[in-house]
Amino acid sequence: MQVQELLKMYYHIDCSLDSTGYFYVGGQLYYLSLVQEPQDFLNRYHYYRYLMHQCGMKGYEIVRNIYQELFTQGYVLLLYQKDHFSLKQYIHQTMMIYRFPKLKVQQIKEQWICKIDQAREKVKDYAYSFKHDQDIISLIYYYCGLGENSINILNYILQIDKQASLPVSLSLTQPFFEYVYELLNPCCYIFSTRMRHLSCLVSSQIITYVQLQNILETHYFDVYEIIYLYARMLYPSYFFECLLQDLLDEKKVAFFYQQMKQNQDMYVQMFRILSFYVTLPKISWINC
């Protein structure tokens, strides 16, 4: 069943959808998404609702179908309630730590290595296919190199403490949001580290370097978190996600080439800011 038919049959909504999942009906913004693990989503959504409440916003609410069910054939329909958005309050609340087991740095390292290995395997697909694309192959090698640098920073943490771990909170899954309604979408959140969340905000240019410095001054972060933030800024998770899901069209390829040029300054700025609080391992092509 196509999603348009699903909306018409189960929600009495007749509209056309594009690939983003967002659409307007009667002046209201909706978002339709396929949910792989409904119970996991509901668990995150519970904390998301708490976050919105603490920020004084409504955010997104789940729309029940005509049978009063939250999910329809694996899909969830969300309705956005536009409200006043305070970036300061939002940042303060997203820096809160939940009482979950901490995330081990070794576990993060293993996940990152796995993604880098999978990315390298994709080179073969492009090298031996009829659409031999040198631009994408060059991108893969470049971003795998970035990933290796981020692994070296994790190794730096593990040399200090093999059992190093990081507190867990709600975090954005990826950077590059253009609108508040994208930033507040519960489908864009997972349980991860506060520093993953901060790296997404910096990469999206939602917060400036001055604002980042203020956050570091006004919130408590331990040494491992600050070092990890530098690794997180280097690790190209969004590129790997697009690559492994075969989403690297011409527009995305051009975007990532543009990011290569823009990120160089970001790495230098992040090193300058974070090295005020901790000793960071130097990377020759950044700290030259």
TrEMBL record:
Protein known as: Uncharacterized protein
